[in-house]
Amino acid sequence: MPCMSTSAACWTAGQPAPYLHLARTFDLVEREKGKIKTTAMLCNMFRSLLALSPNDVLPAVYLCTNKISPDHENMELNIGGSLVISAMEESLGTSKSKIHEMYKTYGDLGDVAQECRQNQTLLAPPRPLSVRDVYSTLRKLSAISGGGSAGRRKILVLHLIRSCREMEMKFLVRTPVRNLRIGAMMKTILPALAHAVVLHEKCSTGPVVSLEDVKSQLQSLSTEITEAYNVIPNMDLLVPSLLCEGATFAASSLAMVPGTPIPPMLARITNGVTQALKLFHGRAFTCEYKYDGQRAQIHRLTDGSVQIFSRQMKDSTSQFPDLVNMIKELCNSEVASFILDAEVVGIDRNKGNRLMSFQELSSRERGSKNSSIAIQNIKVDICVFVFDIMFCNGQRLLDNPLRQRRSYIHDLFQEKPGYLELAQQLIVEEDEASIDNSSTLHRMSSFFEKACQSSCEGIMLKTLDIDAGYSASKRCDSWLKVKRDYVEGLGDSLDLVPIGAWYGNGRKAGWYSPFLMACYNPESEEFQSVCRVMSGFSDDFYKEMKEFYSGEKILPKKPVYYKTDEQPELWFTAEQVWEIRGADLTLSPVHHAAIGVVHPSRGISVRMPRHIRCVPDRSPEDCSTATDVASMFRAQTRKMEVSSDGPGAGHQ
């Protein structure tokens, strides 16, 4: 294979890379659905950057992924579609009504902007946008706040739009509304970058490269960079390290750093204790309570500070100042740094440390990026149940078996009941792990029942010695969960109406996913949202729905009789009825189903909803009513406390 020439590039070595280079690639990728060709296109884009403007590789990676920083930094663009439309109106010489009319046809603001620019006559060509221009402007947009912030954001968006050339307009408008829609996910972008690094190095030593000679190296580096990102999803650390080490980069060379969250390990579902015991036959394992709380990754940094991250790796330290104080108080003084996996659970210390539901925990204030909630304003106390450790005093523990990792946890803290505890557990050794061992089955069943009686969701089962490492970001057979929901299930299904949707990402780009579902309240003649649903659909169904919900079935704005705090990208006319089944029903601050019936200010939502089938013989007004939803909530096996002024005042 001849090495790629840079003579056809739209800039020269040492110059800032133009955004047009990315936009042209995005345009090609959007038209191409095959992963192999998409990877090759992105690889060529990165190779040009490596050859001519290597300092622009990092911002280019962020722009490809529609991000401006690592997820845990909580940097949001803070730009709504209305601001972008206002900027389009001013810079493209068209009216808002025309933009909305075109949006009904195209269903995408980027396509609308591109069409408007093509019909616009410019007196002089705009100054070229660079990759760094776009990236730095987006970061500035994220930082703007306070009085007059909308106007200041609009000025920056206007600058970007007015500087667009060719197809830059389409992708630049899509970027601030977080809808790039090129169908390229991280699992495509990372291998493309790895391939570019290998080929760039090989081509620097000769004019021709044999793909057969580098095939194994391409695969090896792709694996290494993907594994590194799975453990440390921080491009600010990963990309500079990759560019420095080149094709010799290894995932293990990227050091874990407290303060950068690790994607949590996930468990597979089983439908009961018996099945779980069969799967772990002959292997030592532990059973743990699966607490009904919020997963928390707790980081102690070398300077003694503590940070808390959610399951989605968002910084939630400001929500839990009491947890920060617990860690500082109960941590052994000789421990310099660690990363723990734990569950934060609401607890009522006035009722014998009664564990509370996730819904009750979620009523706590959340704080903000720059301001923690005040300790005196906390209305729901918490207990932290620690169940794993991934890093301790500079030592990476991911590859250590769970039994060894557990020994580190015991040395870290002094337990304090009702405040900080190790997860309740039952150990089954390998000679006891058999479906024929009635004693083991009885012990596990009793442990499961006790967990459910203690207001837990069920139990977790984890191997202790064999295949017992911590596999960050992966759902593994070495962790199993047996939940009451899976054993009991929702007693009945609901017939709900799709009233809106978001544009799909990744493999679902070009389709709608998820859909916003609603029940009907005949008294107020309103559709009230119940949940988002994105499970149970086939590819053919997605295609059918994209064709069905088009034209006049897409509404220009939310109808007044749609009641929800959700903000889907598209609103639909009420047309179809779908049967939806889920794990159970819970109170929601976002969804409005039966609001005021079981709680004065919260509606009811379905957890883990799944599409079962379409119900063509029912009209939207004949779907499940708000009263139906409230009745199912009251009748479900799992109970929770509901009160008019917060959790804990009464039992429902």
Automatic annotation (TrEMBL):
SUPFAM superfamilies linked to this entry: ATP-dependent DNA ligase DNA-binding domain, DNA ligase/mRNA capping enzyme, catalytic domain, Nucleic acid-binding proteins
Transmembrane regions: none
Compartment(s): Nucleus
CDD domains: Adenylation_DNA_ligase_I_Euk (cd07900), OBF_DNA_ligase_I (cd07969)
Key word Ligase present: yes
GO MF entry, a single one: DNA ligase (ATP) activity
Record flagged with keyword DNA damage: yes
Enzyme category, top tier: ligase
Pfam families in the cross-refs: DNA_ligase_A_C, DNA_ligase_A_M, DNA_ligase_A_N
Alphabetical list of InterPro entries matching this protein: ATP-dep_DNA_ligase, DNA_ligase_ATP-dep, DNA_ligase_ATP-dep_C, DNA_ligase_ATP-dep_cent, DNA_ligase_ATP-dep_CS, DNA_ligase_ATP-dep_N, DNA_ligase_N_sf, NA-bd_OB-fold
Residues annotated as domain ATP-dependent DNA ligase family profile: 375-521
Gene3D superfamilies: 3.30.1490.70, DNA ligase, ATP-dependent, N-terminal domain, DNA ligase/mRNA capping enzyme, Nucleic acid-binding proteins
Domain of life: Eukaryota
EC assignment: 6.5.1.1
Family as reported in the entry's similarity comment: Belongs to the ATP-dependent DNA ligase family.
The name this protein goes by in its record: DNA ligase
